[in-house]
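In the design runs reported in the main text, the only information available to the sequence generator was the tokenized backbone. The following block is the verbatim input for one such run; it is reproduced so that readers can re-run the procedure and compare outputs position by position.
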């Protein structure tokens, strides 16, 4: 499933990476950008969807999903308005090994690979911002590997909810327990127990296809150290 596209009269950089660019740089890029709608469960890149564009989300959440031979899936990184989808464009890879899936639908800006490579060769603010994000993203992957190996599902669940909350920018967002289980790589029953505990503690509320963060501060204390560590990575590199 490919994103649905529109032709906006004027693009506004809701993505934080694009918003950081000097006005003249963004103006130069604008003709190469296209506003798109990223639909839930869409696969933007993967073995069956060759990379042709990169995407700058303006909200919502996409994630890189790793599927095992038995069909079990776990998400290894979340991508939102703080980054871009398609870091492998740096390597001009001809084959995508993992799927990038839309988990929470959102608006985004798409950029052809040819335009991306041209800007990277040009250097300057755009190239600096993309390179900085790629470095922060690699740090996130390393932290996630340690987190999945060492921390209990309750803490990882809280961390993912915080990651989604940050990127969506509002306390209520569409998310099922089944999808959260897929993102965490655990059984639905495990997520039911975690969500139930957070709900009874007044930290979250949930219903059919929705999640509500009621007490952000307590959710942070419930999370493992990895949430704060990743935030420090991004702050140190991107600021």
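Verbatim output:
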């Amino acid at each position: 499933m490919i994103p649905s596209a529109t032709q906006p009269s004027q693009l506004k950089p809701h993505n934080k990476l694009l918003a950081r660019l000097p006005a003249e740089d963004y103006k130069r890029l604008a003709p190469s950008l296209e506003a798109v709608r990223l639909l839930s469960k869409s696969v933007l890149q993967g073995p069956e969807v060759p990379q042709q564009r990169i995407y700058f989300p303006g909200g919502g959440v996409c994630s890189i999903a790793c599927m095992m031979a038995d069909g079990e899936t776990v998400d290894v990184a979340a991508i939102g308005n703080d980054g871009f989808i398609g870091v492998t464009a740096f390597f001009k890879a001809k084959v995508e090994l993992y799927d990038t899936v839309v988990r929470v639908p959102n608006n985004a800006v798409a950029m052809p690979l040819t335009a991306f490579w041209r800007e990277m060769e040009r250097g300057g603010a755009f190239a600096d911002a993309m390179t900085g994000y790629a470095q922060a993203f690699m740090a996130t992957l390393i932290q996630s590997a340690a987190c999945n190996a060492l921390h209990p599902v309750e803490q990882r669940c809280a961390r993912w909810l915080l990651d989604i909350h940050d990127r969506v920018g509002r306390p209520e967002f569409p998310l099922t327990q089944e999808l959260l289980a897929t993102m965490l790589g655990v059984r639905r029953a495990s997520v039911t127990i975690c969500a139930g505990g957070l709900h009874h503690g007044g930290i979250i509320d949930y219903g059919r296809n929705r999640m509500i963060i009621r007490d952000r501060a307590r959710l942070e204390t419930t999370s493992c150290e990895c949430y704060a560590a990743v935030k420090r990575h991004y702050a140190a590199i991107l600021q």
